[in-house]
Fold these 2 entries.
Entry 1:
Amino acid sequence: MSRLLDHQRLTHLQRLEAEAIHIMREVVAEADNPVMLYSVGKDSAVMLHLARKAFYPSPPPFPLLHVDTTWKFREMYRLRDRMAAESGMTLLVHQNPEAIERGINPFDHGALHTDMWKTEGLKQALDHYGFDAAFGGARRDEEKSRAKERIFSFRTATHGWDPKNQRPELWNLYNARKNKGESIRVFPISNWTELDIWQYIHLNDVPIVPLYFAAERPTVERDGMLLMVDDERFRLLPGEQPVMRSIRFRTLGCYPLTGAVESRATTLPQVIQETLLTTTSERQGRAIDKDAGGAGMEVKKQQGYF
Amino acid sequence: MSTAPAYVVDDLVARDIDAYLDSHQHKTMLRFITCGSVDDGKSTLIGRLLYDSKMIFEDQLAALESDSRKQGTQGGEIDFALLVDGLAAEREQGITIDVAYRFFNTEKRKFIVADCPGHEQYTRNMVTGASTADLAVILIDARKGVLTQTRRHSYLCHLIGIRNIVLAVNKMDLVGYDQATFDTIVADYAAFAESIGIAGFTALPISGFKGDNITARSPNMPWYHGPTLVEHLETVEVLASVDADKPFRMPVQWVNRPHLDFRGFSGLIATGRVAVGDKVRVLPSGKTSAVTRIVTLDGDLPQAVAGQSVTLCFADEIDCSRGDVIAAAEQPPEAADQFEATLVWLDDAALRVGRGYWLKLGTQTGSATVQQPKYVVNVNTLEQLAAKTLDLNAIGVAELTTDRPIVFEPYADNRTLGGFILIDKLTNATVAAGMLHFSLRRAQNVHWQAVDVGREAHAALKEQKPAVLWFTGLSGSGKSTIANLVEKRLHALGRHTFLLDGDNVRHGLNKDLGFTEADRIENIRRVGEVAKLMTDAGLIVLTAFISPFRAEREMVRAMLPAGEFVEVFVDTPFAEAERRDVKGLYKKARAGLLKNFTGIDSPYERPEAPEVRIDTTVTTPEQAAEQIVDLLLRRA
């Protein structure tokens, strides 16, 4: 990445990397108590790698926060703990105590599961630690309402987002001044596409969860989605029997809510090849965007979803 | 859907992914904006670019087709605008109200498109989109020709310094692909462009809806021989490569100090290039050193170029911190504290002349005041008009003064060291975008006169620590009464004091000022400066002014060394102050004989964290005075 081309013209990935690093350093210089949200997915992997680059030889001067739902894939927990140790950063794991107490799970509670564990859990964690700036790995190409969100995106004291009242963001000047109670979500990889993420992982050997590569895994097919039976908590319906299939995941979340694709791609170039030739967009594997018609994500964000 | 895209990538992806990745890895990036009037078809054009570059997936396409039938404006055909108009509110209104960013690739480049809104009240979003763009696509509806909005947007793009302008004459399908129509519009636009100093532009006849001349040459317009839109976008020069050939400048973002043996300076190189061994100068101090290492996680670099984020190490232990600029030693930029600049006002609350705003330029932040604009530009007629202030969306030229030297270059030479934002100190809103033209000679020639007997010497002789006791509160709240008692006690204790009273100052120093908001700001600024001079002379200054605006009180606080400003809030409820009405002013104001009276038709902004708060409903003036004197003595 850092080797310049002969004619010293930066490639798009070099420009995107430099922009993300610049944003991270601005936040560290201007925020009181920043944190990096870490979901263990491929975007989080790139974010962590960029943070290590931005502050090298210092370790990134903020902790990692994993808002855990207890329902992630086991391989995600393994990589999470390894990466926290390797980066020399503090890992904070937050699980919503109310969700634990009420036994909220993806099988019985549908949308409430995401709301309690992720949306409420995130708010609780940010309030608890008093973080005033939280890095997130959202990209503008993911979803329509994200395309209009600023890189420094302000949240009210109750974590709401007001899309009509965003600060103008000029050049690479970021106004990080907050009013009392406000906090900032910062999206350093806003301008990256899914292909950029994959290419960056490829060029920099960024460690990612093995679930992104195809392997024989136990699956059931349900409502048109291929689900992986990752542990004994998976509730099989009458007549359902796990079947071994060669699958991989394009995006990772709670395992009972995350659809796999059948694939033989076992190397990164093969994964990228499939991604480019595929005909379904990235978030389709997740059930979350389908609520509330086309405006699903915008409504969730106004309520405080990251 | 007329023609197939000219840059089908699928083939290479399927055949040889490594070759494809290699080519993708070497792509450059172009950022551009699209702007035009409300119905010129911006969203449709962008939707078309995404569609033709296969950036729309099948599930999105299915959703788009069903949305097009339900909400579309194209009679059931695919309405590409639905793909990009993201927010629920604007989908209902059928207009793009906020700048949206989109991405697509061709074989040669990655593109980031800022989709900019067309109607007047959202100019601020257009300026936002334009500020990071290498190129602007100005859309014109072939049926309507050059409109006021076209002129406004072109002027803004030119103002922001976009050198590559594309005039896309859209909806050619609706004028029968007529060459004469196209030629007339181009001639109209050329005359206008020349009048505002746009050096050149590229005109293209297109149809975003039908796909003519977007990625493939249109069979409907054989008379057109130029490039397609995408061909043109693939070949224009990007800003970053122009910046590489300028002198080296890097604003310092952060000092990297993991342990005692490493001290590095992190930043994004704004212009030029730097190599190990290069002599550099740190501004504004002017200290020089040489670069010993360019540090990255992937190993040290021999050199680096504009657009890269790096960490530099120096041969010498010189002072360097956030806000400083590292520059080529022999070609440093200058520093100044008075400038002329163009401002684009972005906030609902108009500019307050004389008020302090935060100015952020690169990594430097200072306090800045803006003078009355020299003129504002009517963006529809491009006339220069006189103005007292800048309202939302106004563009004007004005002089600014900063409270410290700012390292800068003219915006035309360097966007990073010439572009700045102004931030309201109370609401924290970004209220203006600015572009510096030049520093004023005043700043270069008026130097601080170095004096041998300094403020410490004055204070030492008086055996006291200077301070400003700033009394604020409603008219008739008891400020002058208490201040007077405090001064008497301090005087009795042998302290050297001076009381600046609001009414008295208005008889002399400030007799030219009235009671409008602007005059009140200037009144306080002058009193602040006088109080500061008196503390330089070693005095304890007491001031009794309503000083209703928080921003001005904070401005005075910022003028003084930390700890010397003591804000005393004489907190008398409005009803109580009106009941007392010592000078009969409330009665006059109620009768409409006094305009802009604080508490009646002009606001009083309560201090948020005053050093002292006196509740006059429970504290007598004598008790208050004792309390304040105690605090002052404890402090010394």
Note: Chain A has two domains: 12-199+296-302, 208-291.
Entry 2:
Amino acid sequence: MKLGMNMLLWTGHVTEEHVPIFGELREAGFDGVEIAVGEGDADHYKKLGAACDQVGLERSIVTILDVDTNPISPDKKIREAAVERLRWVIEMTNAFGGTRLTGPFHSAYKTFEGRGATDDERRWCADVMREVADEAYDAGMVLALEPLNRFECYLMNTSADARAVIDLCDHPNVGMLYDTHHMHIEEKDAAAAVKLGGSAIRHVHASECDRGRPGSGQVAWDATFRALHEIGYDDWLVIEAFSTMDKDFAAAIHIWRDFDPPEEIWRDGGAFVRQAWESTAS
Amino acid sequence: MRCSATVCLVGSLSSGPWIYWHDLEAACADASSIGLDGIELFTESADQVPADELRTLLDRHQLELAAVGTGAGKVFHGLSLTDPDADRRAQAVEFIRGMISFGASFGAPAIIGSMQGGVPRGGDREEVLAWLGEGLEACGRTAADLGVTLIYEPLNRYESNLLNTQADACAFLETCAAPAVRTLADLFHMNIEEVSLPDALRDHASHIGHVHFADSNRRPPGDGHTNFGAIGEALREVGYDGWVSAEAFPWPDPAAAARRTYETFREWIAER
């Protein structure tokens, strides 16, 4: 297992001012960092990647798409724009040195039609992902699609929803991201959800029910980790927690209060995730 | 504790977390046949169902009215207690007062959920909370005069940016001169926001005036992962003697959802 920390705790856009945090994370035992890719250029991400190399951190990224780049739009031009945008994200991720391109980029974030997903939408999504899957592979990164809770997307809210698209896509470089926060809301049984995801699970977000310090809330950590061990998952566990430090970003993802002091979240949360992971290995 | 199920009579709505839909008489007959103690009503207005008609129905089926919702003020009239326009806020208070008085003739409280509104982008949070406090105080006086409580519902982060936890809601109510106002402990919202449901129920027992009964995924209690044993234990321990009212999706259908609700109530929540 490799332990990662998502920089969204601090900011929606990482810049050089955040570089000192990388060193602190490395010292605290993290193996990698995850950043959001939304703006900036290859040069920017290259610099950040070099800073990670300096302290010995691996990396992954999360990204989102919007209505103009929606992979499940009925408009072919917009789906082509999704492919173009993902090509740009792959390029930035490559510059950063990321090995996982993750997030809810299966559909436009927080965009609803007042109904559930259709077969056409699942097929369009699968087609868009297949279109960029080889390029991502060549650039050394896996694509991991993230089911979100009902308030943030409708294409996929559960492991079963994710499998439906991933199975249609049928490409070895396209899998799912299992996020314990979203699954806490949507799934009845975390262990069953992990097992249903099975080998499609290529990335994991360790995130508490309230997005605070992992281990402080209701998430079924033991059951989740036991099931991950059982399916043979031995890859990234990235803590995703939020704060109000970056006000605009916080508002965009419905964060209206602080849950735990940020340093407790990554320091104690990291120790908790590592300990819970080890104690559930049988 | 008494168990009830929600009935939505808002004609233009066709989906939402309500157990029974559109037909009040059929809802009462079914609820009563299962053994539920009451119904919680969501109506379009305070006079959609004439009081004498409702009384006849409730008496015939030996049901009580658990509570009335005020969300139609938002749905139909776009009203909220935190509208930047003072006249609109006054209209919101009037709408809620109508609902309070409708409920009070049956001894039932009104619930303020979506009518609380929120902080608009770039808005001043302190100012918005001050309006919320004024609204709750004004409506709370009406409730007190009519001998009922008024229920304020903290919603999860995805539905409101005002107050998301029992702790925040209770702390806020402490700052208001509104002794008749209680909080609503909605187990679905709490599944997202609280670090522990039983602890939150224990810690804020003195403020909690109503419980919304739903599982982690907002399906009927028993169809998700919420530990109802621990919740029942906490509610009995603090001596909660109010309503436990199912606000959940009618999954797989209203009749089955109502039965599931009542079974879970009997098994885990009701006093032994």
Note: The longest helix of chain B spans residues 125-145.
